[in-house]
Amino acid sequence: MNILRTFTILMKEKYDTIQVDSDSVYRMLQRSKKHIPQEENNDLDAPITMDEVHTALKEGKHKALGYDGISQDFFQLTWETTQYDMLEIMNQMFMDEKPMDSQKHGIILCLK
Question: What is the pTM of this model?
Fold first, then answer.
């Protein structure tokens, strides 16, 4: 078995769909807020700020290479050069509500 095939099988097993108990999801939703105050809603709908992107990048713990082969360390080390591009990409994805296919292979948390 070659390395690529072994790696692919491992990743499929690791990140395969997990079973979710629909009753548990229902109970969780029943306990959540039914209405978000307008001020909070406005904050959530506002474009992502440079501080939010930078905080997410600094606080991230993921060291493995991304889908594109670039690690989080790269973005941390090149922040001064890449920050405006990163902000533009994040906001384009957020405002258009259409991440590119390559962006669907990972999770980026940018807390608002």
Answer: 0.55
